[in-house]
């Protein structure tokens, strides 16, 4: 690092160098968790969730360059780049490079660097994710219907994982003592939420219809989405918008239905199927009344 360049400019250079290299992107993400001087033992355990999310993207092929025989996704590439750029800029600032943070999300990453906790990590990671969603809606609209459906699924799940740690009452109601452990990005259990290969498809682009995917989805993914997350979406998006300082996130939900690059007229896909297991979960884990303003 050299003080002749700002942290924001240095971060842009680091990302530009790996823009068309999915493996290089992974290596850059890995380096961020080692800090500016290569020694950050308190931060390294948080790599688990970040790298599992990254490996899933590489495996899907969404980060492949436009020149590849099977190009990747312009939207996924942009989202991933925002996370990398914010993290790199925070590393640069921590290492002494000059300049004010270029965005609020960089401040979140700096706060995590100074005090590495699960809540700080989620605020940083999800802050970058949400910012990337909001600034790349045009690219999202260009993806096919099934891809746009899963963009909403991913967003719901990463927001919910954050709530497990930082708003356990919202996330699990009377089971809230378990929530911080289930969402902790440092432990293997978090793979349920961020190792998306377990509950989302690996192929890109997706060619089957949304309905065919919903008909095939059984087990944990369906129970998580329709049994636990969907009934809490209003509270979840409102809490997340406040926690992340991203009020525009509220525009990604309408009357309890996700509408990021998705028509409200097609909201029926978010309606839970008729299932005995789902009915049991709804009765056992009802969402907290919406009048609550705190979910600690």
Structure description:
A two-stranded antiparallel ribbon has the order 1-2. 40% of the residues are buried. The chain has a domain at 7-209. The chain has helices at residues 7-18, 22-32, 47-60, 74-94, 104-114, 118-135, 137-141, 145-166, 168-172, 179-183, 191-194, 210-216, 220-229, 233-244, 276-284; strands at residues 253-254, 257-258. Strand 1 (253-254) and strand 2 (257-258) form a beta hairpin. The longest helix has 22 residues, at 145-166. Helix content is 56%, strand content 1%. With 296 residues, it is mostly helical.
List keywords for this structure.
globular; 56% helix; 296 residues; mainly alpha; two-stranded antiparallel sheet
Beta-strand percentage range? under 5%
Major sheet:
2 strands, antiparallel
- Unreliably modeled segments: none
Question: How many whole angstroms does the radius of gyration measure?
Answer: 19 Å
What's the number of extended β-strand segments? 2
Helix count?
15
Judged by helices, strands and strand pairing, the structural class is: mainly alpha
Distance between the termini: 41 Å
Q: Quote the average pLDDT.
A: 90
Q: Which overall shape is indicated by the principal axes computed on the Cα atoms? A: globular
Roughly how much helix do the residues carry, as a percent range? 55-70%
**What is the H-and-E element order?**
HHHHHHHHHHHHHHEEH
* Strands side by side in the biggest sheet: 1-2
């Amino acid at each position: 690092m050299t003080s002749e360049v700002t942290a924001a400019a240095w971060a842009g250079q680091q990302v530009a160098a790996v823009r068309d290299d999915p493996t290089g992107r992974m290596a850059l993400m890995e380096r961020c968790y080692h800090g500016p001087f290569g020694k950050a033992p308190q931060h390294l355990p948080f790599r688990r969730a970040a790298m599992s999310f990254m490996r899933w993207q590489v495996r899907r092929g969404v980060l492949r360059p436009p020149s590849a025989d099977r190009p990747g996704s312009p939207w996924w590439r942009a989202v991933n780049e925002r996370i990398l750029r914010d993290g790199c800029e925070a590393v640069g600032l921590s290492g002494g490079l000059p300049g004010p943070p270029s965005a609020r999300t960089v401040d979140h990453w700096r706060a995590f660097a100074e005090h590495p906790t699960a809540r700080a990590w989620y605020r940083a990671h999800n802050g970058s994710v949400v910012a990337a969603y909001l600034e790349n809606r045009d690219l999202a609209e260009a993806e096919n219907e099934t891809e746009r459906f899963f963009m909403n699924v991913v967003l719901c799940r990463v927001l919910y994982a954050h709530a497990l740690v930082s708003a356990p009452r919202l996330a699990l109601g009377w089971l809230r003592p378990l929530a911080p452990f289930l969402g902790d990005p440092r432990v293997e259990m978090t793979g349920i939420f961020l190792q998306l290969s377990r509950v989302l498809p690996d192929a890109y682009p997706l060619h089957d219809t949304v309905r065919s995917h919903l008909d095939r989805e059984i087990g944990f993914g369906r129970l998580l989405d329709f049994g636990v997350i969907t009934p809490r979406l209003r509270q979840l998006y409102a809490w997340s918008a406040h926690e992340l300082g991203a009020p525009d996130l509220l525009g990604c939900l309408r009357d309890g239905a996700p509408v990021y690059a998705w028509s409200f007229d097609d909201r029926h896909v978010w309606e839970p199927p008729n299932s005995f297991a789902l009915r049991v979960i709804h009765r056992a884990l009802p969402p907290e009344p919406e009048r609550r303003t705190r979910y600690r």
